[in-house]
């Protein structure tokens, strides 16, 4: 239907007797909830948000500043307490500087709850969706009090309008204030950024990093060593029992699933579910209040900082999974919570038909990062989390959407350019999820130096090898050795590849070897959600089984996948619970399962499902930390570093011969690589040549054992067996010695790691 015809339909609806409150009658802007109780002084346009400060004549108060470039007026709304019955006072902000409405309110301090109402045109056909009946969350709010429950009143349009195809054009003038969370003024701690000076951070080099992807709530919710009142919270993750697991495991960084304040989608709330993962942000400066044990009146900020400090004290960095590509306001039929009501056209990418949103994310909207004020919002948020909250890096969800200029992904885009020159952000860890759902959005290997990337080509190649689906071993060779075909350009190093076999999105490690098909029925979407491209193998039975042979094979396959990951060149990423054989019952999209499906089961280390997995993980990470040859800082050259040396990397067939070009193209279930510890490029901090032991890794995915001839001199005179994934128990190294040139039987579906004896 054309815009004119749709407008006529809406007008007809009003004439036919639509309630005045729903049809655009005079809204609350004409009837303030209360006369201004405080004076509003001019204040300053910076910094944005609410900041406690000392005003003229030494008067303490709070400065409020909101960018709303196209608005006709802004009211600051102060609430005298928590809950829907709190009295509201509306204070007009009359000062306007470069699109920023601002004012200083004497006497307002930490703990004050507030929001904004923004006046302007209601003209969805041109993208204008101002509606002063809707209380808006400050985009710069540093703490949020309350939950987003999404009743009809929080929608800028009439959500239940009979003609849904035009519902977004009918303004809803019901007051949303009783139904939405409020921003909270937060105390500015003394000391500021000095608290997070570089010498207080772990600063783990990329090449030495091991990332552990973890959900704050799910990791701690069932932990028996954490007090009940702290489980599921930032304080729980900071508890010594939680940190002990991380340090004993050997990881160097936790990558937290989203902790920005987020909202639950309406379709989930209607089904009695919630957004558990949190990829639905609405407050880019506020720690999600639902993870705070200390309350939601601003104390969540201090609790988050204490968590970061505790992790830093244990030598563990904190990386945040951040969602700047879209917000919880969805598309034209979504709620009006913040940016949509502040300046819809200024914050979101719109289609040529400005009623509709450009959606490169699959979530209904896309932030318009090319706009300077949107870019400022994102970079201000990033700097805030580094300088004031202490975090060490970020993983950017659907980063390709942020790298789009007007339409296409552009590696010279404003977002990437700003990050590259920012003196704070260019020094922290930056991880791209290098794709989005739009045209041309798949950009693995394309991000510029300074960035690392989730390498899904590593994931797919390793999964396919161990399930016997690779046509040859060419791709696997690249993935095991750092993916130089993707990253050896522009000064990039092997650490540009974040290697992973599993992630939050998809099967767990145990489910990867237990299910051929996804089982997402509990999500209530008819099992249509989640990918069908799992590259999994159930080892002979779908789901849980009592068959001892199937279970033994599954345990071995988990050990194979894990060992491959932790011995590969690049930065490994583990998913919390995989080291203990955690299952989600075959769900590969547990984004809405805030229950035992997603929470870590801490009884697993003592049970059968892991099959020695936890001990093996600890041993492999200890080996990785001890041996620089397993965490190289430069790509392999395929040649010796010294005249009497060996090639730094060599590949062998089961016959003990170096692989030829033809071998790479032949179908094979066996691949072996030799890493020379005498031929590591680079020097240590004192300028000395780095040397290490040499290792031979044999990966065999065949269903029958294979005889493998170990390379003899000059590669090695003898070898000591260090890891054998065919063994159930991995507490101690096997220790068996084999002479170079000897033939060893490699068990079916197993990995052997052998160290060259001096």
UniProtKB/TrEMBL annotation:
<dbReference type="InterPro" id="IPR004193">
    <property type="entry name" value="Glyco_hydro_13_N"/>
</dbReference>
<dbReference type="InterPro" id="IPR011837">
    <property type="entry name" value="Glycogen_debranch_GlgX"/>
</dbReference>
<dbReference type="InterPro" id="IPR006047">
    <property type="entry name" value="GH13_cat_dom"/>
</dbReference>
<dbReference type="GO" id="GO:0004135">
    <property type="term" value="F:amylo-alpha-1,6-glucosidase activity"/>
</dbReference>
<comment type="similarity">
    <text>Belongs to the glycosyl hydrolase 13 family.</text>
</comment>
<protein>
    <submittedName>
        <fullName>Glycogen debranching protein GlgX</fullName>
    </submittedName>
</protein>
<dbReference type="InterPro" id="IPR044505">
    <property type="entry name" value="GlgX_Isoamylase_N_E_set"/>
</dbReference>
<dbReference type="InterPro" id="IPR013783">
    <property type="entry name" value="Ig-like_fold"/>
</dbReference>
<keyword id="KW-0378">Hydrolase</keyword>
<dbReference type="InterPro" id="IPR017853">
    <property type="entry name" value="GH"/>
</dbReference>
<feature type="compositionally biased region" description="Low complexity">
    <location>
        <begin position="22"/>
        <end position="38"/>
    </location>
</feature>
<feature type="region of interest" description="Disordered">
    <location>
        <begin position="520"/>
        <end position="548"/>
    </location>
</feature>
<keyword id="KW-0326">Glycosidase</keyword>
<dbReference type="Pfam" id="PF02922">
    <property type="entry name" value="CBM_48"/>
</dbReference>
<feature type="compositionally biased region" description="Basic and acidic residues">
    <location>
        <begin position="520"/>
        <end position="535"/>
    </location>
</feature>
<dbReference type="InterPro" id="IPR013780">
    <property type="entry name" value="Glyco_hydro_b"/>
</dbReference>
<dbReference type="Pfam" id="PF00128">
    <property type="entry name" value="Alpha-amylase"/>
</dbReference>
<feature type="domain" description="Glycosyl hydrolase family 13 catalytic">
    <location>
        <begin position="213"/>
        <end position="624"/>
    </location>
</feature>
<dbReference type="GO" id="GO:0005980">
    <property type="term" value="P:glycogen catabolic process"/>
</dbReference>
<dbReference type="InterPro" id="IPR014756">
    <property type="entry name" value="Ig_E-set"/>
</dbReference>
<feature type="region of interest" description="Disordered">
    <location>
        <begin position="22"/>
        <end position="42"/>
    </location>
</feature>
């Amino acid at each position: 239907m054309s815009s004119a015809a749709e407008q006529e339909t809406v007008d007809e609806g009003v004439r036919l007797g639509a309630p005045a409150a729903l049809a655009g009658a005079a809204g609350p802007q004409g009837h303030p909830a209360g006369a201004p109780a405080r004076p509003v002084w001019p204040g300053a346009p910076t910094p944005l948000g609410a900041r406690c400060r000392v005003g003229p004549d030494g008067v303490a108060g709070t400065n409020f500043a909101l960018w709303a470039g196209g608005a006709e007026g802004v009211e600051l709304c102060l609430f005298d307490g928590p809950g829907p019955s709190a009295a509201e006072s509306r204070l007009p902000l009359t000062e306007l500087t470069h699109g920023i409405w601002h004012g200083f309110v004497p006497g307002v301090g930490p703990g004050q709850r507030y929001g904004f109402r923004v006046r302007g045109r209601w003209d969805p056909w041109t993208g204008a969706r101002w509606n002063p009946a809707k209380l808006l969350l400050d985009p710069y709010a540093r703490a949020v009090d309350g939950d987003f429950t999404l009743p009809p009143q929080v929608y800028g349009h009439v959500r239940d309008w009979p003609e849904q195809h035009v519902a977004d054009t009918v303004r809803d003038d019901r007051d949303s204030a009783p139904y939405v969370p409020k921003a909270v003024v937060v105390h500015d701690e003394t000391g500021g950024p000095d608290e997070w000076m570089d010498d207080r951070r772990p600063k783990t080099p990329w090449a030495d990093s091991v990332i552990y992807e973890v959900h704050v709530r799910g990791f701690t919710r069932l932990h028996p060593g954490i007090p009940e009142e702290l489980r599921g919270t930032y304080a729980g993750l900071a508890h010594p029992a939680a940190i002990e697991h991380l340090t004993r495991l050997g990881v160097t960084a936790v990558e937290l699933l989203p902790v920005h304040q987020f909202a639950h989608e309406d379709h989930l709330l209607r089904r009695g579910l919630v957004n558990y993962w949190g990829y639905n942000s609405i407050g880019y400066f506020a720690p999600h209040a639902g993870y705070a044990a200390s309350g939601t009146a601003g104390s969540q900020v201090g609790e988050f900082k204490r968590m970061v400090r505790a992790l830093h004290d244990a030598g563990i960095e904190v990386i945040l999974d951040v969602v700047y590509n879209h917000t919880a306001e969805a598309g034209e039929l979504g709620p009006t919570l913040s940016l949509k009501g502040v300046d819809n056209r200024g914050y979101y990418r719109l289609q040529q038909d400005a009623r509709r949103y450009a959606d490169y994310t699959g979530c209904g909207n896309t932030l318009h990062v090319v706009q300077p004020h949107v870019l400022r919002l994102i970079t201000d948020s990033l700097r805030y989390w580094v300088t004031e909250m202490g975090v060490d890096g970020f993983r950017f969800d659907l980063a390709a959407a942020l790298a789009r200029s007007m339409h296409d992904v552009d590696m010279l885009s404003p977002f990437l350019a700003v990050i590259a020159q920012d003196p704070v952000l260019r020094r922290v860890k930056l991880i791209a999820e290098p794709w989005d759902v739009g045209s041309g959005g798949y950009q693995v290997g394309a991000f510029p130096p300074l960035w690392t990337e989730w390498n899904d080509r590593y994931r797919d190649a390793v999964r396919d090898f161990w399930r016997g689906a690779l046509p040859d071993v060419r791709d696997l060779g690249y993935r095991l050795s750092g993916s130089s075909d993707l990253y050896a350009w522009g000064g990039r190093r092997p650490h540009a590849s974040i290697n992973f076999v599993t992630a939050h999105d998809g099967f767990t490690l145990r489910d990867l070897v237990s299910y051929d098909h996804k089982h997402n029925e509990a999500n209530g979407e008819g099992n249509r959600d989640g990918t069908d491209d799992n590259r999994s193998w159930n080892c002979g039975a779908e789901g849980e089984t009592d068959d001892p042979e199937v279970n033994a094979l599954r345990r071995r396959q988990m050990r194979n996948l894990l060992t491959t990951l932790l011995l590969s060149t690049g930065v490994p990423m583990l998913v919390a619970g995989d080291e203990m054989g955690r299952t989600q019952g075959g769900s590969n999209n547990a984004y809405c399962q805030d229950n035992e499906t997603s929470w870590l089961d801490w009884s697993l280390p003592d049970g059968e499902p892991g099959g020695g997995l936890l001990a093996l993980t600890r041993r492999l990470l200890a080996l990785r930390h001890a041996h620089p040859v397993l965490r190289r800082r430069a790509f392999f050259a395929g040649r010796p570093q010294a005249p009497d040396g060996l090639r730094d990397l060599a590949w062998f067939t089961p016959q003990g011969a170096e692989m030829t070009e033809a071998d790479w193209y032949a179908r094979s279930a066996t691949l072996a690589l030799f890493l020379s510890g005498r031929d590591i490029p680079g020097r240590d901090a004192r300028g000395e040549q780095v040397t290490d032991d040499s290792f031979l890794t044999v990966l065999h995915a065949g269903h029958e054992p294979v005889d493998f001839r170990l390379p003899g001199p000059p590669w090695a005179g003898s070898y000591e067996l260090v890891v054998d994934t065919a063994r159930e128990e991995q507490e101690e190294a096997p220790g068996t010695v084999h002479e170079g040139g000897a033939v060893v039987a490699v068990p079916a579906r197993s990995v052997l790691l052998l160290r060259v004896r001096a």
